[in-house]
Amino acid sequence: MFVFGWNNGPVLLGNLAGSGILSYRRSLALVAAGLLAGVFLEGPKMERSLAGGITSSTTQTVAIEVLILSFTIMLLLSVLRIPVSLGNILVGAYSGASLAAQIPLNSPQILLILLSWLSVPAFSALITILIYRIVSIVVPNWSLITLDTVNRAAVLGITFYVAFAMGANNLGMVRSVLAPFQHAGIEVQAILFSLAALMGMLLFGRGISGVIGDELLALSPVGVLTAMFGGASVMLLLTQFRIPVSITQAIVGGMVGVSLTRDVRVINRRILGEILASWILVTGFAFVLALALFTAF
Amino acid sequence: MKIADLFSFGRREREVLDYVDRHLELVIRTIESFDRFVKLVGQTKWEDANSEYQTIDSLETEADNLHREGNTKIAHGAFFGGIREDILNIMEKIDSIADSAKDSAKVLLEKRLDDGVASALFNSAEMTNFVRSCMNTVISLREVVRALHMNRKSVLSKVHTVENFEEEADEHKDAVRGMISSMALKTDALSLVRLREFTTLLDNVADNAEDATDVILILVAKGYS
């Protein structure tokens, strides 16, 4: 979870700390509140996303191996400053380790997850376009001061909302892996996850460049905030169906959606290609590595 | 930033726009003083013109001070990040308007012009129109800034007024320069150079006003999209 915070820090903190509305530490406090709220209020819905979803159950050995492998992959990619999804890694590693441990896989659930991942960017784009169309009608009627005030409030609210969605989906999913260790109170686990993630953000979260920010697309504050809101909404929706999803997938889809409403689009295709490739390659890599390691040892 | 600032609901931003408005008011007073200065030059009342220049100078200094105060206010966190730089740019352009007016007045006082040339040129309709159109760019710029308190449509509708007056100023500048050229035989070369420099600096008043509206356009494009 420490590495989760390290890697995802810019997604959660980038807009808020970068805007200057709050200091980095106060931004961290807001994100902490969002993560904890998400873990406690919606996180339980993800408890059967992996164990109880992809497989009917799991073992302590599989759980430990999956966590160690996921930590290692995320650590490596964080050191290389590559944003990566915890959901992609955990699903890949968990499936590979379970297969090696001869635990039957729930193929329909895996298929559902993969199909969801494929459709999340498009779905997120669609949702964001709808929201953005409404926003585009309302915003021009505001004065500059009203626009600025709303932007500030939106950055705070949407940062909390995105953290909430990530806490619910990603941190909630980790609880699923730890199902064999039920003797530790779930609430204690949730708090520890969140604290570890925050430590990662605090210590290293500023280091990874905001790849999904300025380098990918040129959008106004209104566009970025709409994309983040749409992305987080899709993430929360999928949480209801126990489907792990990457916030990056959702937000990138939302940002592309906003850009599609413009006549002039500035999209860095190279960065977009790299992000798309990482989603596919990371999951496959985690699966193969888990399968190989568990089989070997 | 303090927690209380989160709930200011635009108070600091209103104060900043108020600074911009007051800054513009001072600059308009500077231009009005410049207008009186030009008339005095046309009447060859050089002592009075010099006094009026002192007024221009003190108004320009006051505008500078207000500019600095406004920058400090913005630096304390008024406005969302992307808009902040644009507001600073706008204030910079407005300050340049006053600077240009002062500099163009100063050029005329460096060495006294021939009374006949001064009277013929500075009492002419061409010069009056030139000064008037420069003043109009600044007055209409004030309307654009005030429209920021309304909505995007209001801002965009008023931007073109500034551009039209700036184009008008260009035409009147060319007419004044034509007059200056026709006076080549009536005055020395140095005076001709100073008069051309005067028209260039005065034209900068209108140009800076138009540049300020360009920044406002960028602000609107970035913020309202």
Characterise this structure.
The complex is a heterodimer of chains A (297) and B (225). Chain A is mostly helical. Chain A has one domain. Helix content of chain A is 73%, strand content 0%. Chain A has ten helices and no strands. Chain A has helices at residues 2-19, 24-41, 60-79, 86-100, 107-138, 144-177, 186-204, 221-239, 247-260, 269-296. The longest helix of chain A is centred in the middle third of the chain and has 34 residues, at 144-177. Chain A starts with a helix and ends with a helix. By secondary structure, chain B is mainly alpha-helical. Chain B has a single domain (3-223), classed as Phosphate transport system protein phou homolog 2, domain 2 (Methane Monooxygenase Hydroxylase, Chain G, domain 1), CATH 1.20.58. In chain B, 86% of the residues lie in helices and 0% in strands. Chain B is built from eight helices and no strands. Chain B has helices at residues 3-6, 11-42, 46-75, 81-110, 115-122, 125-147, 152-182, 189-223. In chain B, helix 2 runs antiparallel to helix 3, helix 2 runs antiparallel to helix 6 (125-147) and helix 3 (46-75) packs antiparallel against helix 4. Chain B is elongated, with a radius of gyration of 19 Å. Classes of the chains: A mainly alpha (297), B mainly alpha (225). The interface between A and B is medium-sized, with 25 and 24 residues.
Terminus-to-terminus distance of chain A: 25 Å
Topology of chain B as a string of helices (H) and strands (E): HHHHHHHH
Quaternary structure classification:
heterodimer
- Biggest chain pair contact, residues each? A-B, 25 and 24 residues
Could you name the CATH topology of chain B?
Methane Monooxygenase Hydroxylase, Chain G, domain 1
What's the β-strand tally of chain A?
A: 0
Basic shape of chain A:
elongated
Residue-averaged pLDDT of chain A: 80
Query: Biggest sheet of chain B, open or closed, and with what strands and sense?
Result: none
